[in-house]
Amino acid sequence: MSSKDGNNEVTKAQLTDAFRSLSGGASRISKAAAPASPSMVAIAVAVSVGAIFVVGYLRGRRRSSIIEIKRL
User: Fold this and answer.
1) C-alpha to C-alpha distance for 16 and 1, rounded to whole angstroms
2) Domain edges within the chain
3) Which of 14, 20, 33, 53 is the most interior residue, by most CB within 10 Å?
């Protein structure tokens, strides 16, 4: 960024303009991604819960032993 008066000082107006341009771009990106966000989060949660259930189920089967008792 170059200043208009020839010295190397950055003015408050220059900083404000730069931050506004950054926040404007971020808000446009977030608005574009907003419609897909809830469905992606729901799918990610469902897959995570399913994976945790399967891992827990398999771990439980490995640790539990089957004892068969027969009466004569």
Assistant:
1) 13
2) 12-63
3) 14
Q: Which two tokens stand for residue 57?
A: 């189920």
DSSP 3-state of 69: coil
Q: Spell out the long-range contacts of 49-58 with Cβ–Cβ below 8 A and sequence spacing 24 or more.
A: none
Read off the pTM: 0.41
Return d(Cα 68, Cα 72) in angstroms, integer.
13
Q: Which two tokens stand for residue 29?
A: 């990106």
The 10s digit of each residue's pLDDT in 16-32 is 888 888 777 777 777 77
**DSSP state letters, 11-31:** PHHHHHHHHHHHHHHHHHHHH
Q: Torsions phi, psi of 70, nearest 5?
A: -115, 140
Rounded-to-integer distance, Cα 23 and Cα 21, Å: 6
Query: What is the 8-class DSSP label of residue 9?
Result: P
